[in-house]
What does this fold into?
Amino acid sequence: MEETKAIIEAIIFASESPLPIDKIREILNEVDRSEIARLVQDLINEYEERRGGFLLQEVAGGLHFRTRSGLSFWINKLMKAKQSMLTNAAMETLAVVAYKQPVVKSEIDRIRGVDVGSSLRGLMEKKLVKIMGRKDVPGKPIMYGTTKKFLEMFSLKDLSELPTLRELKDLDGVKEVPGTET
It folds into this structure.
């Protein structure tokens, strides 16, 4: 089984995006899904115990190698890359989309109190927000939602891992969460 574990590790490493266990199962069709899940958990534990530069995480419905969060300064120094930071306006717009999805632009505008067209376009260009379809009301406005890349960026398995609105309100210094006015 060490060879199978090595194969699993290699294909996860080679994958450009998070690799679901079912996809690993397709590749290793002779290995039982429960055995693959066990070997994956072994790998996750080994990387965590090692406390090295990277770890194996379940992100956006699949498995992906990630650098340990405390090391980003050094990686950026090596790459001399500027982080693509989101503006406060973009972050607020993204928060509304994440919590209200699927949501139309007019609702985001109303919640934020400003026109979010520019922020929404920027989030779509960064592939953090996508068009989910059209709302079945007069005018058929476009509905927006978050993407798999959003989950990857924030290291979330799925949307259920977002903090609840109550948890956000309870944070020190947070007076109001966009879209939760009473």
Remarks:
- The beta strands are 54-59, 62-67, 103-104, 129-134, 142-146.
- The longest helix spans residues 33-50.
